[in-house]
Design brief:
Shape: globular
Structural class: mainly alpha
Helix content: 55-70%
Largest sheet: none
Order of helices and strands: HHHHHHH
Strand content: under 5%
Number of helices: 7
Distance between the termini: 32 Å
Number of strands: 0
Radius of gyration: 15 Å
Length: 129
Amino acid sequence: MGKYKDAEWYIKNSKELIQKYGDIPPPWIYAPNAHPYSVGWRMGGGETHIMILDEWLDQQDLSFDERVTYLKKYPNPARWYQWIIHFLWEVDSYEFTESDYIPYFEKLEELGFKNTKDFHQDLSREDLD
């Protein structure tokens, strides 16, 4: 297990989230108007949420199908597909070129995820935190 499993702050916050959601929700539930590249994910509450989520996911050791089920519980904005691709296939989707996304978007569509065609437009929005 990860480095935070015994930390008091982790135990307290994860229990609160699990009580509210039944698990630790993905980033777009924690901060629905946040951009995936926001500095808020690297400091403050956003950083804490990512740390809790990463620790919890490490503890769950989810199979691919369980990861898909987890994601489908939380409909996502298209801008989060980069994170989702990394989460599902453990590839460095943050280094992808435009054409690298195509096969993964096709796989996501086959799995029932919607709006992959809106990824770049949603990622480019200027009204996000």
